[in-house]
Design goal:
alpha/beta; binds guanosine-5'-triphosphate; binds magnesium ion
Length: about 300
């Protein structure tokens, strides 16, 4: 991407923002590095809102509603939908739905679906690059939809300023499954599909599982409760600047650690291939333990400069 093209993306031209995001979804390269070095200092203004929960609870429908509400007070909103399986559900559906509701032509709304296979390098890093970019080019709020299964919910929790966990009637059993990672990282709980029977029960079990958090009962289908939820989301961003900064700092530290680990490993593998093969053979044969072998490798590398 040329400097001029990057300028146009920074000026908020959606076509060039989209091109930039495509570049940043790919593997690390000098081009990616140049873009990120330019973008990173410009980011930090947007509210990043993570919306996560089991498949089918209505995350995309709710995100669509939230965009509508947020649009009353903010001029530019971006949506990143991370699809765990297929690029044709989730984000694509969301795009269709927003078009149906007449927001497709709204120049203040940018929607992007990211297929899982697009980021072999890890969801957290890709998501972080894309969020930084959308922030830097001037979006006021960035909604990130992920399915709360596997790693991704932990990633979105680290990335987002405000984490909204969505459940729905019929997903009550998921509370136990979510408990391990998700309940702790949630800032706000939503029980969607409150127009269906059983929502009260999910509200009550969430309340119990979280030592008294008060879930928002909403219906993304009818819009019931969404305005109040939007106020709570905005309030969360405004309430504690120090906590927000600490959360962002922790996330950046984690990303740095990951990058250092990865780049050092790649370097070591390339420069000490032979010694590594020897250690591998010893460890796989059961002749020595992995930690002793690693320590010996490091010792040898130090002695050989
Ligand atoms: N009755 C009712 N149905 C809803 C509500 N919100 C969403 N739905 C329906 O639930 C289904 C799933 O909605 P989505 O918004 O695609 O759910 P999702 O959580 O984004 O799904 P994935 O992205 O596949 O994980 C759709 O058929 C929606 O129309 C609601 O408030 N009430
Ligand atoms: Mg979805």
């Amino acid at each position: 991407m040329t400097t001029e093209q990057l300028d146009r993306a920074l000026a908020g031209e959606p076509r060039w923002v989209a091109r930039l995001l495509t570049l940043l979804e790919g593997a690390w390269s000098p081009e990616v590095a140049a873009a990120m070095q330019r973008l990173t200092p410009l980011a930090g203004r947007a509210q990043v809102i993570g919306v996560t929960g089991p498949p089918g609870v209505g995350k995309s429908t709710l995100v669509d509603r939230l965009v509508g509400e947020l649009r009353n007070e903010l001029s530019r909103i971006a949506v990143l939908a991370f699809d765990p399986s297929s690029p044709f559900t989730g984000g694509a559906l969301l795009g269709d739905r927003i078009r149906m509701m007449g927001r497709g032509d709204d120049p203040g709304v940018f929607i992007r679906s990211v297929a899982n296979r697009a980021h072999a390098g890890g969801l957290s890093r890709t998501a972080s690059r894309l969020v930084t970019t959308l922030d830097a080019v001037g979006y006021d709020a960035i909604l990130v939809e992920t399915v709360g299964a596997g790693q991704s919910e932990v990633d979105v929790a680290g990335l987002a300023d405000t984490v909204v966990v969505v459940l729905a009637p019929g997903f009550g059993d998921e509370i136990q499954a979510l408990k391990a990672g998700m309940l702790e990282t949630a800032d706000l709980f939503v029980v969607n599909k409150a127009d269906l029977p059983g929502a009260d029960r999910v509200v009550a079990s969430l309340h119990d599982a979280t030592d008294g958090a008060m879930p928002h009962a909403v219906s993304a289908a009818t819009g019931q409760g969404v305005a109040e939820l939007t106020r709570a989301i905005r309030g969360h961003h405004a309430c504690d600047r120090a906590a927000l900064d600490a959360r962002r700092a922790a996330h950046r530290r984690a990303l740095l650690e990951e990058a250092v680990r990865e780049q050092l490993w790649a370097h070591f593998r390339a420069t000490h291939a032979e010694a590594l093969d020897g250690a591998m053979a010893q460890v796989t044969a059961g002749a020595t333990d992995p930690e002793s072998a690693a320590a010996a490798l490091l010792e040898e590398a130090r002695n050989n400069g």
